[in-house]
Write a structure and sequence with these properties.
Blueprint: H1 2-22, E1 24-32, E2 43-46, E3 49-53, E4 59-65, E5 68-75, E6 82-88, E7 93-99, E8 123-128, H2 129-133, H3 141-144, E9 151-155, E10 164-168, E11 176-180, E12 183-184, E13 207-212, E14 226-231, E15 240-248, E16 252-260, E17 268-279, E18 288-301, E19 304-316
Parallel strand pairs: 1-7, 11-14
Antiparallel strand pairs: 1-4, 2-3, 2-5, 5-6, 8-13, 9-10, 11-12, 13-14, 15-16, 16-17, 17-18, 18-19
Length: 321
């Protein structure tokens, strides 16, 4: 009877150890298929789960791979992923793999200036080109923002054309940091920004962010009461031509024509705009005659974007101011 118990116990011990005996180590080296150099830091995944990375010599070691069929996947930034079938065995296995260089396709990234985000302790409002176009009938940019929280606007002529002013949380334009593509627009002497000198700039704006209170401005002191971050870095890949014409009260007219070549020779783009805005104004002797232009030439290739942008305007506002 004792012999029978001893033999049964040995058999059970053997069955329990069988899965452990079926597991075996797998080691290998990952190199560049083109240069043969080791790839340190490559990620090793077994059946979709990351289980380690290669060391400085490009080597990896999996202490125990269970018996059966598995999928070994190796990834490294800038290289095509490698997928290989792996059969778990009790004996040690040695693998070597070469990764082919490859590109990483990402979305277009534009560094337009310092902008607030959900992780920034700044109150802000983002307005897209579509948001601005809903109200862009010739009035100056402040009047396109007057429905933004904490914004109050005024007009010398009473019609929103000509000299206008904007206050954000009670702060006048001298305390509002205004940038166009990250370049300060504030006058160095008065510290204000005179948007009357840039009529119809809104027709060339891609997006604008209104920051209320001390924001992410990198220009000047931290005493700025608000920020207007304007971006005109739009990239339109298809050729276009369009004109906008509107008429309103007090003989207010807006006429502009815009054009773009789209991608020329796969890499170059050219965009332009000519505008004219005129108004008799609500007040007597408050007429305005405004003209402006905008032109940009761009080069883009892979992760490179280079743009030349020029814009200016001329204003005649008579005696309202």
């Amino acid at each position: 009877m004792p012999k029978t118990v001893l033999l049964a116990g040995a058999a059970l011990l053997g069955l329990a150890a069988a899965p452990a005996w079926a597991q075996g180590p797998v080691a290998g080296t990952i190199t560049d298929a083109r240069t043969g150099e080791a790839l340190p830091g490559a990620t090793i995944l077994l059946d979709g789960a990351a289980i380690g990375t290669t060391n400085p010599a490009g080597a990896f070691n999996l202490a125990s791979v269970p018996a059966g069929a598995h999928e070994l996947r190796i990834t490294f930034l800038g290289y095509e992923p490698l997928v290989r079938a792996l059969q778990g065995r009790a004996e040690a296995q040695q693998l070597s793999a070469q990764l082919q260089p490859g590109g990483v396709l990402t979305g277009e990234a534009l560094v337009t200036a310092s902008r607030a985000s959900d992780r920034t302790a700044t109150v802000y409002t983002n307005l897209s080109k579509q948001d601005l176009n809903k109200r862009n009938f010739g009035q100056d940019l402040p009047y396109l923002l007057d429905q933004t929280p904490s914004v109050v606007v005024t007009s010398d002529a009473g019609a929103g054309v000509g000299y206008t002013d904007i206050r954000i949380r009670g702060t006048s334009s001298t305390g509002i940091n205004t940038t166009v593509n990250g370049v300060p627009l504030n006058d160095p002497e008065s510290h204000g920004s005179f948007l009357v000198n840039l009529p119809d700039l809104a027709s060339s704006i891609n997006s604008i962010q209104v920051q209320r209170g001390v924001g992410t401005s990198q220009n000047g002191s931290a005493a700025f009461g608000a920020s207007l971050n304007i971006s005109t870095l739009d990239v339109r890949r298809e050729a276009y031509g369009e004109t906008q014409n509107s008429f309103g009260s007090f003989n207010t007219w807006k006429n502009n024509v815009s054009f773009g070549t789209g991608l020329v020779g796969k890499y170059f783009t050219f965009d332009g705009r000519l505008s004219r805005i005129s108004s008799d104004g609500y007040m007597n002797k408050a007429a305005s005659d405004l003209k402006s232009y905008y032109f940009s030439a761009g080069y883009q290739h892979k992760n490179t974007l280079l743009k030349f942008i020029t814009f200016s305007g001329r204003e005649k506002t008579y005696q309202a101011w």
